[in-house]
């Protein structure tokens, strides 16, 4: 039992480090946000080990970004920046772990050898991960970056701006995860590897 916990912690650490590195690959937006592969390891661990492991992995990715200085703070007071960083980095990446809610559906489809339902479970999990992350960024956008909206409605501006990079993030992650999970489902079964 102790070895299983150690193995789980090692996997979480490896996937968090992989997520941090994959977040370096891609392109950034002028006012924050980027199209990267960071969701893939969070979704993978969430499907492999469950929601809690996904939440912890996402939180660690956000922590790694903050401690290494790879974050975009709002030009506001220190207290406000702490809240903004918490939403944009810790919460935004952590909630991607909720993709793990679709793990049981994926496992059932895998047992039935139904690749269509496997793909649907993966895409649904990826959508939840991307959508919840998107909501965190939209919330942060209209709360802390409304000066970028100019004369526009700050909520609408945040919704549109954050969708410009989160829609591609979702599409890329859904494609990679679907191909990876359907072609190599052993990756999601910790007892079989």
From TrEMBL:
<dbReference type="GO" id="GO:0015234">
    <property type="term" value="F:thiamine transmembrane transporter activity"/>
</dbReference>
<feature type="transmembrane region" description="Helical">
    <location>
        <begin position="6"/>
        <end position="25"/>
    </location>
</feature>
<keyword id="KW-0472">Membrane</keyword>
<feature type="transmembrane region" description="Helical">
    <location>
        <begin position="118"/>
        <end position="136"/>
    </location>
</feature>
<dbReference type="GO" id="GO:0005886">
    <property type="term" value="C:plasma membrane"/>
</dbReference>
<feature type="transmembrane region" description="Helical">
    <location>
        <begin position="156"/>
        <end position="182"/>
    </location>
</feature>
<dbReference type="InterPro" id="IPR012651">
    <property type="entry name" value="Thia_Transptr_ThiT"/>
</dbReference>
<keyword id="KW-1133">Transmembrane helix</keyword>
<keyword id="KW-0812">Transmembrane</keyword>
<protein>
    <submittedName>
        <fullName>Energy-coupled thiamine transporter ThiT</fullName>
    </submittedName>
</protein>
<dbReference type="Pfam" id="PF09515">
    <property type="entry name" value="Thia_YuaJ"/>
</dbReference>
<feature type="transmembrane region" description="Helical">
    <location>
        <begin position="81"/>
        <end position="106"/>
    </location>
</feature>
